[in-house]
Structures are given as C-alpha cells and as structure tokens.
Design goal:
The structure holds two protein chains of two kinds.
Chain A (H helix, E strand, L loop, with lengths): L3 E4 L2 E5 L4 E7 L7 E6 L6 E6 L5 E4 L2 E6 L4 E6 L8 E7 L11 E2 L3 E6 L1
Chain B lengths: L3 E4 L2 E4 L5 E7 L5 E8 L3 E10 L2 E4 L7 E2 L9 E3 L8 E8 L7 E2 L3 E5 L1
Classes of the chains: A mainly beta, B mainly beta.
Chain lengths: 115, 112
C-alpha cells in the first residue's frame, strides 16, 4: 500500500519554464513533508520541507504548496534550469509531533530541463 | 566533513554468498536507516534504528539483517542474497525522522 503517490513519473520542461510535481498522501497524521533531490550517481539530498501549519514555503526558485484538506502537496520550480535536471522525491512522516519511525517516499519524478 | 559513508560502492556477487554493506556516519545521529531504490518504486525502507541496540523492520525487510552496536555504524547484512535483491542501496542518518536525512553515496548490488 503506497501512502504517498507522486506524479508525473517523468517531466520535460524547457529552460525558463515552470516545473510542477505533485504528491498526495493518505495518512492524516503526517506532519512533515520534505522534498529530496537526487542527481545521477548521488544519494538524495534535502531540497525543501514544509509543515502543515503553513500553506506555502518558498526558497529561491523552489516552492512547496500544501493543501491540507485535499491531502496534497506540490513542488514548483520556477525559471527551471538545466542544472535542475534530477530525480525529485516527495516524502512524508508524522515525526514532527509524534514518534514516527519512518519517512515514506513517493516513487520519484525524473525531471529533464532542455535548452 | 559531515558525511555518511558506505562500502563497497559497487558489488557483484552470486546467489547465496553472504555479504555485508557497511554504513558509517560522523554526525552523532541517533536515527539511521537503510533504503533500496528500484526503478518505478522509489525509495523503500528496509530497516531502521532509533539508537544503539534498537532496530526495527521497515517496509521490505525480508532477506536482510542489520545491527547497531555502535552509534556511528549500521551495517546491512544479506545472509543468502538472491537475484531479487539486485538494487541500489542507500544508508541515511538524521537526528530524528522529522529532521533532514543525510544519505550516503549508495551501493549498487548485483546478485547473479
């Protein structure tokens, strides 16, 4: 049973465009939603994270939008650059206020930014 | 430099030959975890450890063992590897599950 569903599986965006990756979750106890970025041959690295007490968090060109009622959150990459080409994973846990033992990951989105 | 190290980075073995993948972190993190990454399936947790001598199963623990005798080390043991364990493995550590998880560089395992 997949608790975090991620789409699309792959995405091609032109340089300067907006990349949007969506995730939906089922467990209403989740209270921490990070996004990880993975370049080929490397381990994932934290990109940006949000807690559900806010609806949006922005860091540079990267923004997380969070819709608690719909149990959805998304990553927006503004002015996408070729250097953003990577695989992106959303994740969720209830470890912020609870004693969660795990971070549940989505299946990943391979983003390619073309010139 | 704060980091998670894994060894070996690449391993080709045969069915049934026991192997160990080592993981070490130098950040004094209490939480450590092993994941496997497969195309289309994302990152799936194998085992995790909340502290020394405290380990528990993740989503896909079958065929794997772990131990946490020291805070910095969390080895992954495959007692009798099978071809369906061919995968890319990552070790990760963090202060808590709600904190940033630091991932190692990965170990690509092929079981023939």
């Amino acid at each position: 049973q997949q608790q975090v569903k991620q789409s699309p599986q792959s995405l091609i965006v032109q340089k300067g465009g907006i990349s949007i990756i969506n995730c939906a979750y089922e467990n209403t106890a989740f209270d921490y939603f990070p996004w990880y970025q993975q370049f080929p041959g490397k381990g994932p690295a934290l990109l940006i994270a949000i807690r559900p007490d806010v609806s949006e968090k922005k860091e540079g060109r990267f923004t997380i939008s969070f819709n608690k009622s719909a149990k959805q959150f998304s990553l927006h990459i503004m002015d996408s650059q070729p250097g953003d080409s990577a695989t992106y994973f959303c994740a969720a846990s209830d470890g912020w206020t609870g004693t969660a033992s795990k971070l549940t990951f989505g299946t990943g989105t391979r983003l390619q930014v073309t010139l | 430099e704060a980091q998670v190290t894994q060894n070996p980075r690449y391993l080709i073995t045969v069915t049934g030959k026991k192997l160990t993948v080592t993981c070490s972190q130098n950040m004094n993190h209490e939480y450590m975890s092993w994941y496997r990454q497969d195309p289309g399936l994302g990152l799936r947790q194998i085992y995790y450890s909340m502290n020394v001598e405290v380990t528990d199963k993740g989503d896909v623990p079958e065929g794997y063992k772990v131990s946490r005798k020291e805070k910095r080390n969390f080895p992954l043991i495959l007692e009798s590897p099978s071809p369906n364990q061919t995968s890319l493995y990552f070790c990760a550590s963090s202060l808590r599950t709600s904190d940033e998880q630091f991932f190692g560089p990965g170990t690509r395992l092929t079981v023939l």
